[in-house]
Amino acid sequence: MPKVKGKSKTTRLLARFSTIAGELGYPDTVRDAKGAAFKFYTEEGNLDWVFLNPEVFNLRDPAKFASLVHAKKRDPATNLLDANMLWDFLSSHPETFNALMRNYTDEGTPKSYSRLVISSVNTYTFTKRKSPTEWDHHLVRIKLVPATPIDPDKDWFTYDEATTMAGKDPDYLTRRLYDEIQRGQFPTWKVSAQILDPAKTSVDVLDATKVVPASDCPWIEFGQLKLNELPQNYFTQVEQAAFTPANIVPGWDISPDPILQIRLLSYGDSQRYRLGANHDQLPPNRACSYVYDPTRRNGAHSLTNYANAPNYIGSSGRDLKKPDHYNISFLKWQGNISRYLSKVEDVDYKQCREHWDTLSGPQQSRFISNVASSVAPASLPVRIATIAVFTKIWQAKGHETPPGPSPEKLTEDLKDRINERLENNKSKGSRLGIVPGGEGSDDLSYIPPTFPDPSTRPVPDIYERV
Ligand code: HEM
């Protein structure tokens, strides 16, 4: 089994794709960020890449994570997904909008997991020995780009297509990934690294809500990732898999990125609950290399218990070589340690605006429709707060803002489309026997999350549009 790093090396890996808000069995074409987790079985242990599409995360303050997840999940009273909860949280935390700017384009409804740009989002560290006593360290982000370039018109569903597909085949993305591999159309990505030099960019390289522009720190391609094998038993090989950013190997290290720091603890915590104390000994999780960690033993279903070895590391008489990267400190800090990472500043809106400027006219129009459909069922104050964040984004100055509709015009457009949906849902709601929450349009309490966009019609034969 070769090391993961080095020229012309091939390393076997396990991949798992996921949606975030919906439970198992929930339609996978409903708009959502997508998770992509990879476990590389290297000769130095397992390296996990637990990555995401889009390329930025919603938060930089990990303390908010539980609330973000809960706002996306079901309402505790109704057990329904709830636009009010979602947009209440999002609009009161505008740092979430840079991710949202991507997720509410058609990028949020891809036609295949194989057509995703997948990013590390968090910042990690490349380490390499320079001399017996010196090391090179580089802060780094990773990106996987499909080997065949993405064509948004072919590779992304529109909202109505995704909605129709959600009913026709709730497992569409999973089925398609399986089919592609079975037919030998192996999903393949080019893997690139962005070496982050804080001196070369004004963006905080440890802020997961921000893109570091390629013009500041270019991307360097260094490998390829291909999925060419299917599991034989879903439960054993996929369901029981446990990925965590804490699984690292020499050459790859963590960084002080606050979101990453919390992730180092929370995945293992969840997995000890989900799979049990010794989940790292299950077939998909155990390393193919020799592992010696006698501090971790006993507990339910322990299969490898180190016989009579002492239960600590560093016992006399055992010539254990310390790993090369042991205890090397490389970051020099200057500045303050701060408690609150939540303050939203102009730069938060600026990156949103910059992304908006990269969208074509039709993509911008569909973005506004997608947001309107999602936010329409929320209460009036939440709708007002959401519109206000978008106005700030449209008012922000990007790099080179191209000519286009004014912020006022865009804001009016969003308001109009929200109102259009409210009217539509009011009439459809009574026809479907759905009980509105009150008399006024502002009080409508429920619109199915996959309700077709009123400005379009469901696609008659969705498979022809795929
Ligand atoms: C404060 C921030 C975050 C926390 C606390 C957190 C926590 C978790 C937890 C507990 C799980 C379930 C693990 C399991 O049961 O196996 C999970 C799954 C996942 N997370 Fe996060 N997460 C955070 C941010 C992120 C970010 C920034 C990314 C990507 C860059 C990410 C990618 C994923 C993926 C891909 C999965 C599914 C992995 C799989 O297939 O097992 N998460 N997360």
UniProtKB/TrEMBL annotation:
Residue ranges occupied by any Catalase core domain in the UniProt entry: 3-321
Cofactor: heme
GO biological process, one term: hydrogen peroxide catabolic process
Keywords assigned: Heme, Iron, Metal-binding, Oxidoreductase, Peroxidase
InterPro entries listed in its UniProt record: Catalase, Catalase_clade1/3, Catalase_core, Catalase_sf
Keyword presence, Repeat: no
Keyword Transmembrane helix annotated: no
PANTHER family reported for this sequence: CATALASE
Family per record: Belongs to the catalase family.
Name listed for the protein in its UniProt record: Peroxisomal catalase A
Gene symbol of the encoding locus: CTA1_1
